[in-house]
Design a protein that fits this description.
By secondary structure, the protein is an alpha+beta fold. A hairpin with a 2-residue loop joins β12 and β13. It folds into two domains: about 160 residues, Protein Transport Mog1p, Chain A (3-Layer(aba) Sandwich); about 120 residues, 3-Layer(aba) Sandwich (Protein Transport Mog1p, Chain A), CATH 3.40.1000. The chain is extended and about 100 Å long. Helix content is about 30%, strand content about 25%. It contains nine helices and 15 strands.
């Protein structure tokens, strides 16, 4: 029997051949290639030119957040944001804080405080070259300068945090070391608009494992770096390696900068009032506004303490007596809402006190003259009250 498939004619695979590509297809392909090239060029150009307007806060979109918090959910959200260390652009006004000691430089009119964020202004990225008169140092390059609009080029990813504390400018330079091939030290000087904001960014980036410096009150050494605040400047020195000579040079540079930069603690009055007894090392933080989720708590200093076997968090705000009293009353009213309980306590050493329980945690809040503060989020009310009363009577200093 004959196979019928064997009789079918075989197809010629080469029976259709395109002699040329039509003009329309060639033009279309060329147009597509030009579009791809144009898109790539546009993406590259945008990536090289930072537009700060893309990241600026639209204040009109935040109007709804200025209303009083209603409900348990809103309260938790505010306190959770504070726990995460959320910071905003400060509105620090030195006229609203208690008078500084005589040893502290006072801010001149229009200096130190700010009603409008100066970080949004175009401050020229220029300045004096960074010169360090140490014989073992050799500048490796020219001094670099950055302002709020260009800072991302140097520390991309961290720039917004600096700008939130009213960063003004950065000057930085690398120095090689004589007799140590390949070793160098990078020096960064971040100038903020005030000492209190310089402390704020310093505290935000502080390494809890750092070792204190004996030549800078706000300073520490960590691995291959030295970090400290001097006046309105936050200084970072990063060594290229752990060679003893390199680390010694880094420390020498740090000591030089600490002496060369003016000492100024304007705005840090509340921080100096934080008790030192039992304070957990390097736990002090600064919140410029809306501390604990409350609009009436601004320029607040906070630290952690070991006391009577408990971990406690103590905060303090310095203000005018009227502002401090108003904040205390507002806090008392707020703490008694949304399922919480709040009650006034007997006065201690001229201070008014109240205790409050919210969501299983306790607060003991006091107000005396120009300061308001207390313990928050304590698990034991008695221990928290004991700490506050000891602070008010001077037993804890």
């Amino acid at each position: 029997m004959t196979n019928p498939d064997s009789k079918a004619p075989k197809r010629n695979r080469n029976e259709f051949v395109r002699a040329e590509v039509p003009l329309t297809e060639r033009v279309t392909s060329l147009v597509i290639l030009c579009l791809i090239a144009g898109i790539g060029a546009a993406v590259w150009f945008k990536g090289q030119h930072f537009d700060p307007a893309l990241y600026s806060v639209r204040t009109d979109s935040l109007k709804s957040t200025t209303a009083a918090v209603e409900g348990k959910t809103g309260t938790i959200r505010g306190e959770a944001a504070q726990a995460r260390g959320v910071v905003r652009t400060a509105t620090f006004n030195p006229a609203a804080i208690a008078a500084e000691p005589a040893t502290t430089k006072e801010a001149a009119p229009g200096e130190g405080g700010y009603e409008e964020s100066s970080a949004n202004k175009s401050i020229p990225a220029t300045g004096e070259p960074l010169e360090i008169p140490l014989p073992e140092l050799k500048p490796m390059e020219k001094t670099e300068f950055y302002n709020a609009e260009t800072l991302f080029e140097k520390i991309d990813g961290r720039a917004p945090a600096y700008v939130s504390f009213n960063f003004q400018n950065l000057r930085c330079r690398s120095f090689g070391l004589a007799g140590t091939a390949g070793s160098y030290v990078d020096v960064y000087e971040y100038r903020m608009d005030s000492p209190v904001n310089a402390f704020g960014i310093f505290a935000l980036e502080r390494d809890p494992k750092g070792k204190p410096l004996d030549f800078a009150a706000d300073g520490y050494a960590s691995d291959m770096g030295f970090f400290f605040r001097q006046g309105a400047v936050y200084v970072q020195l990063l060594c290229s390696d752990q060679n003893p000579n390199t680390l010694a040079a880094g420390r020498a540079i740090a000591e030089n900068r600490a002496k060369a930069l003016p000492a100024d603690d304007t705005g840090l009055a509340a921080r100096r009032k934080l008790p030192a007894d039992g304070m957990v090392a390097d736990s002090v933080t600064f919140v410029p506004e809306n501390a604990l989720g409350q609009s009436f708590l601004n320029n607040v200093f906070q630290a952690n303490y070991d006391f009577a076997g408990q971990k406690l968090t103590f905060f303090l705000m310095a203000a005018t007596p009227a502002a401090a009293e108003g904040a205390w009353k507002s806090f008392l009213i707020f703490s008694g809402k949304y399922g919480g309980t709040a009650s006034e306590l007997p006065a201690v050493a001229g201070a008014k006190l109240f205790s409050a329980q919210n969501f299983g945690k306790w607060k003991i809040i006091y107000q005396r003259e120009s300061e308001i503060g207390g313990i928050i989020d304590a698990t034991d009310a008695g221990t928290a009250r004991q700490f506050v009363e000891k602070y008010l009577t001077g037993a804890i200093k």
